[in-house]
Design a protein that fits this description.
heterodimer, A: alpha+beta, Bacterial Protein-export protein SecB, 4-stranded antiparallel sheet, B: alpha+beta
């Protein structure tokens, strides 16, 4: 991967707070039924730059409904050494590279979310890496359209 | 999945203010780079702890005196505790390399979050080549092999 792309930026774009739910999360009212929900997508690939957005919601579950207390929106930008990588690489290589890009993007976002959790006096949430099948689906949306 | 990330936690940024001012006033001519050193701190009962030291180094300055240093700790939980104790298989090596990459990405994300207000120009970060950590990974897997 070291000769294929480099990460040129990772940032917190926006944060939305539902104060009522946040207060309930702080009071641990949801018990074990709290955690994070992660959703990533490729925003664009333009001029060698791949932009991936990640939304992480710190949620409590109630009546099987997710209630977001904190929603963070994050961006990671990767610069590809070869601008035609997605035209020339074989399919397996493209999936392998996109899998790594998604994982890194989610890791950047998760580190920022953990820091925000501390600032909001929330316990630091655990995170399961997104399963490969879901990453393949997200990659296909980008590669096939 | 093979593992869950239990948490990641970063230190405060250790900033050399003198060097930072020098870097920011010369940022158009200075070349900066993120340097990482990841160590496997502990593996016990399916819990793997990695510590990554991140240094912002600037080419025009003495590399031994980095502008900023921070440390990030990430703890992984392996539900299958034997996954990393079956020797240096390709799969185990790949999983450990993924953990190292994630730990370094946590360090980069945490660093940029904390550095957002000090006017740093964007500093790229690269994924470490497998070869850089190959011996560390193989040594760890051999040491913990229970076959």
């Amino acid at each position: 991967m070291d000769h294929i792309f480099k990460v040129v930026d990772a940032s917190l774009v926006d944060t939305e707070i539902d104060q009522y739910v946040l207060d309930r999360l702080k009071r641990k009212e949801f018990g074990r039924m709290s955690g994070i929900s992660v959703l990533s997508r490729i925003e664009k690939f333009e001029k060698s730059l791949l932009v991936i957005s990640t939304r992480i919601q710190y949620i409590g579950m109630e009546n099987e409904m997710p209630l977001p207390g904190v929603t963070g929106y994050y961006l990671t930008i990767m610069e590809f050494i070869q601008s035609n990588f997605f035209e020339t690489a074989d399919t397996d290589k493209k999936f392998e590279v996109l899998r790594k890009c998604f994982h890194l993007s989610e890791a950047h976002a998760y580190a920022m979310m953990c820091q925000q959790a501390l600032e909001y006096s929330l316990s630091v949430p655990l995170m399961e890496p997104t399963p490969d099948q879901k990453l393949k689906d997200w990659s296909n949306q980008f590669l096939i359209g | 999945m093979d593992f869950v990330v239990l948490y990641t936690s970063g230190s405060e940024l250790n900033i050399n203010k003198h060097l930072l001012e020098s870097y920011l006033s010369n940022k158009n001519s200075a070349t900066a780079a993120m340097k990482y050193l990841t160590k496997i701190s502990e593996y016990k009962a399916g819990l793997l702890t990695l510590t990554t030291e991140l240094r912002l180094a600037v080419a025009m300055l003495d590399d031994d005196q980095p502008v900023i240093i921070s440390k990030q700790t990430t703890r992984f939980n392996f539900p299958d505790r034997m996954l990393l104790t079956r020797g240096a298989s390709k799969r185990a090596q790949g999983i450990l390399k993924d953990c190292i990459d994630l730990s370094q990405a946590h360090a980069y994300g945490g660093f940029l979050y904390k550095a957002a207000n000090i006017g740093l120009p964007l500093v790229p970060s690269a994924v470490a080549p497998f070869e850089q950590y190959e011996s560390v990974i193989k040594d760890f897997l051999k040491k913990h092999a229970k076959l």
